[in-house]
Recover the amino acids of this structure.
């Protein structure tokens, strides 16, 4: 009897310790619109118990609030920079005008406030925000500046999915950082200062800035919004018992149907929404979120060897988590909530991929690294120049659908004697790059490996994307339409390995309005048969007025002989013009 009591007592204590999180991860607070106020500030964060390390956060010491937005809303985000140094904030994945995108051209000076305003045009999904100052993105992100954006829409709302934030719906930013245990600082490089390579020892694993954290999850369907917010590391995400993750969303929206898989490979910048069925576990049980990095092929950062044929581990090793399976987070199963979601819908969103035939332009880009020279993006494998903020690399016509072919060059790009498809004869380092483009969400068409084998994207990659993992030697083709925003301010495309981006593996494009050519001699009012004014003064004066608002372009072929009009004027998108053969609308 006495023995039983003791047993019982310890059982309760053990159970209790299982019921209460030992080290609960941070769950960022939510902010609702239409006006969001963010302040970027310096702070401290205890990565290791008892040691404060300098950190940066939005409205706090580290990370930032989750911005919740509804599709169709007009929002304004006020970002006050209290860091004491310049920075920018970019809304990763959102389709907004380049002026509102927060790229390197939208510098926020110390004590200045940046206040972009935009309509939420994206689909329900998980997006994120982070600084994007050229040369300083690595520093600012790894010091802690990143936050989630959750967009909701009616299509998602109509589905029976878990969506109670912090209860059965959790944003999880997966990160590793390199920590200096002597000075208690996060290590980084700037793109100007290449450092000593110790930033590659990113062995501190954290979820929502919490090391060895755990999370209480109810015994039901739970939605995890996974974001790889790391500087360079790819995660091979899985559960410790290898049970399925049901992927429901990719970067820019829900998939058409859930995709059950025991592994999700997530490269920096990528998101995946997954549902985990915790109903099969008992209350008090624990299960771990893992990265099975031992399964990553060489050439991917996170694997045993991040660079193929580079002749040694360099500064990348020793790093105990390279090529090793490790725990990122422990889930503790707690009791069901009152109204649990207990099943996963069989179909999700109406995903409409862009047909390949719609593309009228194809661009080829090479991600070039190795040979001891700077990382960069070029139109050919031989391109020599890295990012130059004053050079526009591509000009795209508004409304055009394009195919982009992105290659990760693993070859001796400066030698002609090596067959680019012969991985075996590779001379220079070969590595993966996560390619990201602003402005658009794209659809992956296919991947061609170094041997010429073509594969279609797996179901988890068939939705809207804004980052794609390009394997060493591989060419990925994607398709996108560049709608809505034309401006002289450029958008970026770049490798989302932060030290690569900072060092110049980035380029930029502008979107230009379509040009309408008007033959002034033919279209002069007096030349019209019925004498009607189909080319009237008003239309053009309206157009001319609109020029200051948006950017469409009319070119008068005869050089502006028609009175007060200049040879080139810019017009509003959507405006209707009367020409001799009928009216046209500028799209
Ligand atoms: Cu997540 Cu151009 O960035
Ligand atoms: Cu982005
Ligand atoms: Cu890269």
């Amino acid at each position: 009897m006495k023995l039983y009591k003791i047993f019982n007592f310890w059982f309760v204590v053990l159970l209790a310790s299982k019921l209460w999180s030992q080290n609960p991860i941070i769950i960022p607070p939510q902010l609702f619109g239409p006006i969001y106020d963010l302040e970027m500030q310096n702070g401290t964060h205890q990565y290791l118990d008892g040691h404060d390390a300098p950190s940066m956060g939005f409205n706090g010491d580290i990370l930032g609030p989750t911005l919740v937005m509804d599709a169709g809303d007009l929002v304004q985000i006020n970002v006050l920079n209290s860091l004491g140094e310049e920075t920018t904030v970019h809304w990763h994945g959102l389709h907004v005008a380049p002026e509102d995108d927060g790229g390197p051209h939208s510098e926020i000076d110390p004590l200045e406030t940046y206040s972009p305003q935009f309509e939420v045009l994206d689909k329900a999904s998980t997006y994120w925000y982070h600084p994007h100052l050229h040369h300083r993105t690595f520093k600012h992100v790894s010091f802690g500046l990143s936050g989630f954006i959750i967009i909701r829409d009616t299509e998602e709302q109509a589905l029976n999915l878990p969506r109670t934030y912090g209860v059965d719906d959790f944003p999880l930013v997966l990160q590793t950082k390199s920590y200096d245990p002597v000075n208690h600082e996060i290590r980084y490089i700037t793109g100007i200062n290449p450092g000593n390579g110790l930033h590659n020892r990113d062995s501190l694993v954290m979820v929502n800035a919490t090391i060895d954290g755990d999370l209480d999850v109810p015994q039901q369907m739970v939605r995890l919004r996974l974001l790889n917010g790391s500087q360079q590391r790819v995660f091979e995400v899985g559960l410790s018992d290898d049970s399925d993750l049901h992927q429901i969303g990719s970067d820019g929206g829900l998939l058409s149907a859930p995709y059950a898989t025991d592994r999700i490979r997530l490269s920096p910048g990528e998101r995946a929404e997954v549902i985990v069925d915790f109903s099969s576990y008992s209350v008090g049980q624990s299960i771990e979120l893992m990265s099975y990095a031992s399964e990553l092929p060489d050439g991917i950062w996170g694997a045993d060897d991040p660079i193929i044929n580079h002749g040694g581990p360099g500064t990348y090793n020793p790093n105990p988590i390279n090529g090793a399976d490790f725990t990122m987070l422990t889930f503790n199963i707690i009791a069901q909530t009152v109204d649990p979601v207990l099943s996963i819908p069989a179909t999700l969103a109406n995903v409409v991929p862009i047909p390949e035939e719609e593309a009228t332009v194809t661009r080829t880009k090479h991600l070039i690294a190795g040979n001891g020279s700077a990382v960069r993006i070029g139109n050919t494998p031989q391109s020599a120049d890295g990012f130059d903020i004053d050079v526009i690399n591509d000009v795209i016509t508004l409304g055009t659908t394009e195919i982009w072919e992105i290659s990760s060059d693993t070859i001796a790009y400066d030698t002609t004697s090596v067959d680019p498809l012969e991985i075996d004869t590779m001379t220079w380092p070969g590595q993966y790059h996560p390619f990201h483009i602003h402005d658009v969400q794209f659809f992956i068409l296919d991947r061609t490996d170094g041997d010429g084998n073509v594969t279609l994207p797996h179901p988890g990659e068939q939705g809207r994307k804004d980052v794609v993992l390009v394997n060493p030697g591989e060419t990925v083709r994607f398709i996108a339409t560049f709608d809505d925003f034309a401006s002289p301010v450029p958008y970026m495309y770049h490798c989302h390995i932060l030290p690569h981006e900072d060092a110049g593996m980035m380029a930029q494009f502008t979107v230009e309005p379509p040009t309408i050519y008007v033959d002034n001699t033919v279209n002069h009012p007096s030349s019209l048969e019925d004498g009607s004014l189909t080319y009237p003064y008003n239309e053009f004066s309206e157009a001319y007025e609109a020029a200051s608002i948006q950017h469409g372009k009319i070119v008068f072929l005869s050089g502006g002989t028609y009175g007060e009009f200049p040879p080139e004027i810019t017009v509003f998108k959507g405006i209707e013009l009367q020409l001799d053969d009928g009216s046209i609308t500028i799209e």
Notes: Residues 76 and 117 are 4 Å apart (CA to CA).
